[in-house]
Design brief:
Enzyme class: transferase
Family: Belongs to the eukaryotic-type primase small subunit family.
Strand order of the largest sheet: 12-13-16-17-18
Structural class: alpha+beta
Organism: Rotaria socialis
Catalytic activity: DNA(n) + a 2'-deoxyribonucleoside 5'-triphosphate = DNA(n+1) + diphosphate; ssDNA + n NTP = ssDNA/pppN(pN)n-1 hybrid + (n-1) diphosphate
Keywords: DNA-directed DNA polymerase, Nucleotidyltransferase, Transferase
Number of strands: 18
Number of domains: 2
Shape: globular
């Protein structure tokens, strides 16, 4: 039972912890599609464009020259560790890697939402696409349809379809929809299992995947494989480094001898990700939280996106909204973001997260779909807008603020 503890100050290889429970995802027949999709996605964003790769087989071969795939799957659970063992680029630290991975996920889910075909055609507002959790909620009713019918719906990533991306959405132990990519592994001081180690009380060591053989042309010894599996072991730290500057990803070439000035532009896919960064990622608000109604409201101000407490109406109506979403002990919510109307500046949109999902049409709480509370600061009225696609929200029921 050996683990490595992540040091915030070190450079890192890219890695993914991919897992889900089989009995909660019985509709997934091919358990290799999810990890293969992750490999294609990482290779695309971490390598210079290469127009000479024109077949799926050659693309996969190139991927497995770089990525070491370890597996600890059982009859109950699918579990893979994907490690950029022969990296084309490194990350400044785990925080940069965490934001990078969350931005990729946001980009992928948006790619699904924005694509249109004979079996999938929905229209969402910019606000409804603002966060990853919103996108997951919107996609839940269509997951199986996407997997089954969107195999020929291509994406900007070579040999990756919309159907392939849909395999990243899975159900957890409590049947809630989430991602098979565990983003918690990028936390500070997180412990990662080592090659051929096993969790306490278990009998599923982390071993080389036979389905995804690493660099098959080369025979690696055990010590070399162990080194390759260490995400902080850098024999020659002369790779481009991806870091954050002014909340944008930048490629640093200073560690490369005689760098070509234009090389960073060849990482064009990294640069394109900057337009998909969700600002709320930098505040890292909790995804599941129970708010004690007796706690001061200001406790959560620093996690609310686009909220300016210097503007009196935002401050005043925030208190009003929080009183609504914390009024039920069994359905506690919190304000995830606050946005002022683009055309009607008197409107404030409070996006609600947590367990408050009250739907006026249903007169009850939804299990998954989130809601927004809209406030008209001029007329002193408000309404709750459910984000469930099947709910008709074209006519809103406004109430007077007392």
């Amino acid at each position: 039972r050996f683990k490595t503890v992540l040091d915030f100050n070190l450079s890192y290889d890219t890695y993914i912890d991919f897992e889900y429970f089989i009995d909660k995802n019985l509709y997934i027949e091919d358990h290799y599609k999810g990890p293969m999709s992750c490999l294609k996605i990482l290779y695309y964003f971490l390598n210079v464009p290469n127009d000479t790769i024109n077949t799926s087989e050659s693309y996969t071969k190139n991927i497995l020259k770089q990525f070491l795939v370890l597996e600890a799957s059982t009859s109950e659970k699918i579990s893979y560790h994907l490690i950029h063992a022969n990296p084309s680029a490194l990350f400044q630290n785990t925080t940069t890697l965490r934001i990078f991975m969350k931005t990729i996920i946001h980009f992928l889910l948006l790619s699904i939402i924005q694509h249109k075909c004979t079996t999938f055609n929905i229209n969402l507002t910019v606000q409804e696409c603002a966060t990853t959790s919103n996108l997951i909620n919107q996609l839940v009713p269509f997951v199986n349809t996407l997997r089954k019918h969107c195999n020929r719906c291509n994406t900007s990533i070579p040999f990756l379809s919309i159907a392939d991306i849909a395999y990243l959405l899975v159900q957890n132990k409590t049947n809630q929809w989430t991602l098979a990519i565990d983003t918690n592994v990028y936390s500070k001081n997180q412990q990662l299992r080592l090659f051929e180690s096993v969790k306490y009380g278990k009998n599923n060591p982390l071993v080389l995947s036979t389905k995804f053989p690493f660099h098959s042309e080369i025979q690696y010894s055990y010590p070399n494989l162990l080194k390759k599996s260490l995400i902080t072991f850098m024999e020659h730290d002369i790779k481009p480094k991806i870091y954050l500057k002014d909340k944008n990803f930048v490629v640093d070439l200073s560690s490369i001898s005689n760098p070509i000035n234009t090389l960073s532009y060849n990482f064009i896919h990294v640069n394109l990700l900057n337009q998909y960064i969700d600002p709320s990622i930098f505040y890292n608000p909790p995804t599941n939280i129970n708010i004690d109604r007796n706690l001061p409201k200001s406790k959560h101000f620093n996690t609310i996106e686009n909220l300016s407490l210097s503007i009196p109406d935002m401050q005043m109506f925030l208190n009003f909204v929080e009183n609504i979403i914390t009024s039920e002990s069994t359905h506690q919510g919190y304000v995830h973001s606050c946005i002022r109307g683009t055309y009607n500046k008197n409107l404030l949109f409070f996006n609600i997260a947590g367990n408050y999902r009250f739907c006026p049409k249903k007169n009850d709480h939804h299990k998954r779909n989130t809601v927004a509370i809209m406030v008209d600061t001029k007329n002193y009225i408000y309404c709750t807008r459910c984000k469930d696609i099947e709910c008709n929200n074209t006519i809103l029921s406004w109430k007077k603020i007392k």
